[in-house]
What does this fold into?
Amino acid sequence: MADLPHRPLALRTADSPLPGLAARGRQAVLAPLGRTVAALSRLVSRHPAGWRWVARRHHPVLDGLAAANAQSVCVRAARQVPAYRAFLRARPAGARHRLADFPETDKLGYVVAHDAADRCWGGRLPTRGVVVDESAGSSGRPFNWPRGDRELRAVHRDIVGYTKLVFPMRRPFVINAYSMGAWATGTTTGAAMARISVVKNTGPDLGKIIDTLREFGPDFDYLVTAYPPFLKHLRDRLDAEEFPWSRYRIFASCGGEGMTEALRDYLEQRFALVRSAYGASDLTIGIGAETRFTVWLRRRLQNDRALRAELLGADEQRLPMVFQYNPFATYLETNEHRELVCTVTTEVLQPRLRYNIGDEALLVPYQRIVELAHLDPVRRAEFRTAVSAERMTLPVLLLFGRRDSTVSYLGANLYPQDVEYGLYTGNPYAAEINRFCLTLVEDAALETRPVIHIELRRALTAAQREALAIACRTGVRRHLTSVSRDFAQSLVEDPTAGDLRVELHEPGSGPFAGEQKIKNVYLVR
It folds into this structure.
């Protein structure tokens, strides 16, 4: 990629030149080493056996090289990516000796502010070999993410390497039940899996999946890729049809939203194994993935108070998803608000540079988990069993989910402002609503559904409450269908996705009990 004519960035030194000189000297040594290790990692990972070798030999000393590599990507982008150059010039030009000295980018301040070509290396969007993914559009505008051939090949290698390691299949047959179309996960997963498996891209169509299982029979080992709630629909439908589960070996891989351990337990009564992965259209679909070790750690965090306090903090009540990730592919940091900041260091068309996706997370070195595991004999024994098969030593990502007031549901982000539009637009009972909040619940049938809690302005009769609930449910469903392509597509593929639930509360009761804050709280975690 040729350099564009440019004015070199003025990187100022600190007041005292010594710290700056030391940092520059350190970076001058570490950056070439980091780039070399990253290049070797990509080279070795081209084959699934090499991918396993890399994943099993990550050492804490490599984290420093991964950081230096991420910083060198930022420095190079400052010279070769017009949008990033303009982005930096528009901000205070302090000394940028460390990765953390480069400002965070995000969708509003960087992606919206600069066109697609300017965000590419050299300011050029290639005219061939590019696939454009489209994100949800739940905020009112879908975003497009061009991906080049090298970027897609890297994603495919990661998916293949992980699948070969985690799902031990003899004659693999992948049934790809993610939504098809412009969404990244479905099409990319299908293309990657075709390298190692027979693939059928059914989309979330229960009938097609069942027909496929029956036609190709139990001689194959199956891997169904889908959103977590759809896997439950599949299990329930197969049970209802008295499907001969015992004759088949069916694994499941899911993503797009979190999954409770209760749902995993329910699914693994039928599926041989259920594992989840983490990604984002803004970045890449393969940031992190679950292993037997991370599932053990998450389940241990449910009941092990001491471990929970060490890793999450004494007051943390939430149970995060737990993944392992490769810092030489996606270098992760967290800021002072515990928001995840990601620098993609593979050969992407549009570099993501300290990009704040809006997810809340914690990062923990693998070695720290090892140390904590060895403090307790039972914990140590369980740990050894958990890591005995896959033996990945990559660092750990503890993910709490979106921090920007959204909930993820069937791959769509639900924003409180969209709920508000649905509650008030054309609603003859809107005057009865005092405030609202949104949450996700998993009911006794292990179905995850959005629940809109509404605080009434006054007491209503039973008939009035019923009319208000119907109007709110209909309005919100209608608005979400109009603004979120992911939600609309989910309704087409699975009508039960429209099961939005409305619960009415008397003033100051339910989730609205207690002292009212100046600003409403729109999400209940």
About this structure: Residues 1-15 have pLDDT under 50 and may be disordered. The longest strand covers residues 355-364.
